[in-house]
Amino acid sequence: MEITLLKLLLAHILGDFFFQPNSWVLEKERKKLKSLKLYWHVIIHTVLVFLIFLSFGVWKIALAIGITHLVIDSIKLIYQRAKTKRRWFFIDQGLHLLVILACWINYIQPDLSSLFIYEQKIWVFVVGALVLTSPTAMVIKMIIAKWLPTGDSKKASSLQEAGRYIGMLERLLIFLFVCTHHFEAVGFLLAAKSIFRFGDLKEAHDIKLTEYVLIGTLLSFGLALLVSLAVVGLS
């Protein structure tokens, strides 16, 4: 990755996650645009650009990042609600990253033809990773739907959609392990999941639930391995 882009990302990470105490965040949420911490936060982001580049020649970038940061954070504070905090966090960070990319392209004018995004291998990995998230979760759900346990076993205490996200994470980990040729880590992952699941299934005393979980786990691991090996072969 180009060094200038890395420096801009570093300035953002330091400003948003290291030099912004939680007390500042709470005050901004409470006072919104009347909070002085909002403006100190923007000043810190602007100054960090100068400090990391050790040059006043980047004043246009620093000014653009400072102004857009104030606008984006202000919009977030005005429209954010308790129920939409998580959504606004990702919107906020996404917009800041887009600004950083725009500043990098407009002021540094890099040779975009040499970027990694133009490599076919990268797109193969991206498609493979995405396939192993929601699409694979839907396929597994459709396959094992007819075996879905009913009664008390279905009502067991569990986080909302926890199983779906656990499945996605485990498949992405398998994808990472296979693509980096660490097949032994896949075995450790399967063993770890088995250990955690064993206690729950033992307490449940439900053969159907055990078989249902086993089918889902093997399907998840099997599909993850197939997609991962296909990606490695295509790349």
From TrEMBL:
InterPro entries: Phage_phiKZ_Orf197 (IPR021737). This is DUF3307 domain-containing protein. The keyword Phosphoprotein does not apply. The keyword Coiled coil does not apply. Keywords: Membrane, Transmembrane, Transmembrane helix. The chain crosses the membrane at residues 39-67, 88-107, 122-144, 172-192, 212-234. Pfam families: DUF3307. The lineage of its organism: Bacteria, Pseudomonadati, Bacteroidota, Sphingobacteriia, Sphingobacteriales.
